[in-house]
Each structure stands twice: as C-alpha cells, then as structure tokens.
Specification:
ABC transporter transmembrane region fold; Rossmann fold; 2 domains; 4-stranded antiparallel β-sheet; 19 helices; 12 strands; about 65% helix
Length: about 600
C-alpha cells in the first residue's frame, strides 16, 4: 500500500467512522439491499398497531350499535355475534398476519445477507493485516509487542464484524421505525404526539453525554486486550524459564495487574454504555403515563376513539423502543469504532521502502562481499561506524566482540533487514540496496542462536528453505549434517510431528535440525549466528563438522562468543563499539596481543 493510497489515520471517533465506511465499499450493493429489506420489514410492522386499533374500533362500534338497538340492554352472545362485521374483521386480521409474516421474512433475508458480508469483511481484513505484516520492516517488530498485533486479528476484527452483522441493520430499522411511527402517531393525534416528542431531546442529550464518556473507556479496553494477549503469550512460551527462576509469583502479579486494568476498563465502558438504557426508559415511562391520562380523557370526551388510543399507546411504546435500542447498541458502536481506529493505525504503519525498479541481480554468485564505509544506527546513537571490509569468495569470516559491539547488526544489514544510513554493501560488485530484498536473502542460509521450528513433521521443517526438495535431497543433507541417525531414532522418523513449541525435542536437536534445513536449501553463502551456544561439547563437535561441509567453497559468516570455535577462520573481524578494531587470522591476532587476545585469554581464564 503506497502512502498516497493510505487513509488519514483516525484520531477520533468521527475519523474512525469515516475509515470504517470506506472499508465497506466492496460490499455496497449487498449492504444497500439488506438495508432496503430492513426498511421494508419495518414499514410492514409499523401498520400493525393501526390495524389492531381499527379492529378494536369496529368491534366497539358494532357493540355500541347493538346495545342501542336493544334499548340500552346488554345483548346476548348470539345477537352480538350476528351484529359483528366479521367479514371486515377477518380481512383486517388476514392483512395484519400477512404484514407480520412479510416483515419476518424480509428480516431473515437481510440478516443472512449481513452475516455473509460480515464473514467476508472479516476474511478480507485478516488478509489485509497479514499482508501488512509481511510488508513491515523488521524495526516494527523490534518496537511492538506480538500480542498487541495479534489482537488486531482477533479482538478488533471481532468487534467490527459483530457490529456489522447486527448493529447496522438495527440502526436503519430504528431510524425507519421512528420516522414511520411518528407519521402514524401524527395521523391519530397531534397533541398526543407532542407529549411523546417532548422527552426525545432529553433522552438524546443524555445518550450523547454518556456515549462521549464511554468512548475513552472502550479505547482503553481494545488497547489493553493487546497487552493482555502479549502477557499471556510471553508467560506461556516462557514457562520453563519462569519456573526455573521461581518467577511464578512475579509473572502472576504482572498478569493480574494487566487483567485488573482490563477488568476496570471493561466495567467502566459497559457501565456507561448500559447507563443510557435506564435513563431513556425513565423518560419513556413518564411520557407513557402522561399519554394514558390525556388519551383516556380524550376518549371519554369523544374526541378520540378507544381503538385509536390503544393504537397510539402501542406506537408510543414502539416509538421509544428504537431510541432505547440505539442507546443500548451505542456501546457496541463505540467498541467497533475503537477497534476500527486501531486497525486503521496498524494498516498505516510505514512499510519497507519499495525495492528499486528495475532491480539488479547477481548473474553468477561467486561470493565476494564488500562493506564500504557503512554507518548505521537504530535511533540517535550510532551502532555501526565507518565499517569497511572486503571478503573474498569462499572465505570463512568470524565476527567477534563483546555484547553490543554490533555483530548481529552487521548480519541484519547483510540480509537487508535494515539498510545502511550511509555507505553500501555489495555482493560480487552489485550493491544490495539496488537488489530486491528477496533476491538478497536467497543468497544466504541462516542458522541462528534462537532456533525456530513450526508445528509439522520433521521432513516438512527441513524442506522449509527449499519447498521442491526431494526426500533423497533431505536424506543427503541430514547425513552430511550428522542428523540422520538422530532423526531415524525418533518414533516416526522423518514423519515425527514437532509440537507447537518444539518441546518434544531437545535444544541441541533443534539446532541440528536448523543446520540440516540450511543444508537442504543449499544457499550460495552461509551465516552462522551463535549456532553452538545451546549445545554440549559433543554436539558442538558434530555441528562444527557439519558446518565445515556446509561452508566448503562458500563464503560464510560466523558470529561466536566461544572463540575456540572460530580458530580456523580465514578472517576474524574484531568489533568494539560498532567499529573494526582488529582483523586477521587467529594466530596473527594472538601474536598482536591486542583486544582479541584479551577476549580469547579471558575465556580460558573463566574456564579454569
């Protein structure tokens, strides 16, 4: 999504509502049809009380006529039955039944249409959010919590679709009913209509004041949902660490604080959202009592038929019901608009700078990598300063240094997770900034300290970097990486299912599988980032053997704190505070007796 096509980020409910309407454009026609059906259903139901009033008037009039003919005496049932105009009464009864059935059918059809639109809207919005995630830079994920982003897909979309499927038609129905009933009431009695209308402005004023108060709390509810989901996700994923450090009480306290905040916000939002109903109901009851008194007096005085009073009272009840319903659904509307505001803000996050077109490409990868006066910072303070080095094809380059020296940042720049602030990185003479990010990342295979395996079989995980790899390709890679025997020893071999958190295999086994996955992908160059930090000495030896095979003839980058693992590297870059302070081979650097020697010797002192 280009910046030109993005909507203005909503900062209030009005702009959030505008954004919400714009997202409904693909379904304008079905929504319009649904709303027309809702209007038709409401109009059919509006005539009900009028017809019932006519039935009452006819029955009363026939009764009074029969009494007058009998000289004021109460007629018997048979005489009264003969005097009734059953033909007209039956016709009116059939009419009202047809109207109510038509109203029910139209309501059902429009409900089905809106339910379908709601489901399709949710599907499209989820797809838009996932598409947005794929276009966001790594910096976004460094700065935002996972649970908050997940909340957009679950809670925020749920709040909007709930409003779309039920509240939208309810609003149209309420508006139509108010207008239609007002017209019917005016045809019966203007004075009674004035009494009914007096309370409307008061009701609307209170609803507006309460709704404004509730908006703040509904925003807080949607925001806190994200924080709560993130807290749950972190605690669930880190149970072993929490238990190992006896951190249960602290984690529970932190969770309870967030949960209490959500509870408080939800309670306040629901309280103010629901407060509108009893307030409007009080005004409704006042007008209802007044109309009963005045209408009854008018009937006694002969100014109004009793059936008309009955119809008017039904209309009053129906007239105030839409106002009450609007006050009830105001809470849902505010929640949906708060969710729409959050989704709009997320979809307008700055995306990765588009790749240059036409993009350059390395015709035949040799493996020369050049860093030319590279400067980079995540914020104000520089992380990499004037970094320059040329790596020849096939070299194994080790990057070492204390924590925070910028080692992982170099890898992030190499993979184009970030672009340098100045200077450039080139592969075989082609600047990576002028290549497509996907093409740059295909040049490298990565084995990281933080292993990542997804739910599925071991074979599916190994094929992740090369989807068209055959089973024989996988077998060759696992044998070369010393993982074949370990996999065969599992209950179902290559078909063994890895659990959601990969907790049915050890940390060392996970690391071996990630190396095998890299070997299956068979990339031109390799990156090994602290890949042996979670394994024992024997497994480390197996990994080193596998990595030697994997990097043979390939340019490779190794980040390691355990300096004994990189003694055979062709080039060691020693970093401190974002700059290269020393470079050379292991023996040369030890003889120089500089910073590298200090780091190397300190590790052996610690070991002793």
């Amino acid at each position: 999504m280009s910046r030109k096509k993005q909507h203005e980020r909503p900062q209030n409910m009005h702009l959030a509502f505008s954004y919400f309407l714009k997202t409904l454009k693909p379904w304008r026609i079905p929504i319009l049809i649904s709303l027309l059906l809702a209007i038709g259903a409401t109009v059919c139901s509006i005539f009900g009380p009028n017809i019932l009033g006519q039935i009452t008037n006819i029955a009363v009039e026939d009764y009074q006529t029969t009494v007058l003919r009998a000289g004021g005496k109460i007629p018997d049932a048979e005489t009264l039955n003969q005097a009734m105009n059953w033909g007209k009464l039956s016709s009116l009864a059939i009419t009202i039944i047809v109207l109510y059935l038509t109203s029910a059918i139209l309501n059902y059809i429009q409900g089905v249409i809106l339910a379908n639109v709601s489901a399709r809207y949710a599907k499209r919005t989820r797809a838009a959010i996932l598409d947005k995630i794929s276009k966001l830079p790594i910096s976004y994920f460094d700065q935002h919590q996972f649970g908050d982003t997940l909340s957009h897909i679950s809670n925020d979309i749920g709040a909007i679709t709930n409003t779309l499927s039920s509240v939208l038609s309810q609003i149209i129905t309420s508006v139509t009913m108010v207008v239609g009933i007002l017209i019917m009431m005016m045809t019966i009695s203007v004075w009674l209509s004035v009494i009914a209308l007096i309370v409307v402005p008061l009701s609307l004023l209170f609803v507006a004041l309460i709704s404004k108060k509730a908006q703040t709390h509904f925003r807080a509810v949607q925001s806190t949902y994200g924080a709560l989901e993130n807290s749950i996700e972190e605690d669930y994923a880190g149970q072993s660490i929490i238990k190992a450090n006896s951190h249960e009480a602290v984690s529970l306290t932190k969770f309870m604080q967030t949960n209490q905040k959500l509870s408080d916000s939800t309670w306040k939002a629901q309280f103010f959202g629901a407060l509108a109903f009893p307030i409007t109901n009080v005004f409704t009851n006042f007008s209802y009592v007044a109309i009963c008194m005045v209408g009854g007096r008018m009937a006694i005085d002969g100014k109004l038929l009793i059936g008309s009073v009955q119809a008017f009272l039904q209309y009053v009840n129906q007239f105030n019901r839409p106002i009450t319903e609007v006050s009830q659904i105001a809470a849902n509307i505010q929640q949906a608009l708060a969710a729409a505001e959050r989704i709009a803000a997320f979809l307008e996050q700055t995306e990765e700078v588009p790749d240059l077109e036409p993009a350059l490409k390395v015709a035949k990868v040799e493996g020369q990598v050049e860093f030319h006066h590279v400067d980079f910072s995540y914020g104000k303070d520089p992380t990499i300063k004037d970094f320059s080095v040329t790596i020849e094809p096939g070299m194994q380059v080790a990057i070492v240094g204390p924590t925070g020296a910028g080692k992982t940042t170099i890898i992030n720049l190499l993979m184009r997770f970030y672009d340098p602030d100045s200077g450039y990185i080139a592969v075989d003479g082609v600047p990576t900034r002028e290549m497509r990010r996907a093409d740059v990342r295909k040049l490298f295979g990565m084995v990281l300290q933080d292993t990542w395996l997804f739910s599925g079989t071991i074979e599916e995980n190994l094929r992740y970097g090369k989807l068209n790899a055959t089973h024989d390709d996988i077998i060759r890679a696992t044998k070369a990486s010393n993982t074949h025997h370990f996999i065969e020893s599992l209950s179902h071999g290559y078909k063994t299912e890895i659990s959601e958190d990969s907790d049915n295999i050890s940390a060392g086994e996970k690391q071996l599988l990630t190396i095998a996955r890299a070997m299956v992908a068979d990339p031109p160059m390799m990156i090994l980032d602290e890949a042996t930090s979670n394994v024992d000495t024997r497994t480390e030896k197996l990994i080193q053997e596998a990595f030697t095979k994997l990097t043979h003839g390939r340019t490779s980058f190794v980040i390691a704190h355990r300096l004994s693992t990189i003694r055979d590297s062709d080039l060691i870059l020693v970093m401190r505070d974002g700059s290269i302070v020393e470079q050379g081979k292991h023996d040369e650097l030890l003889k120089a007796n500089g910073f590298y020697a200090e780091l190397y010797n300190s590790q052996f002192e610690e070991a002793e």
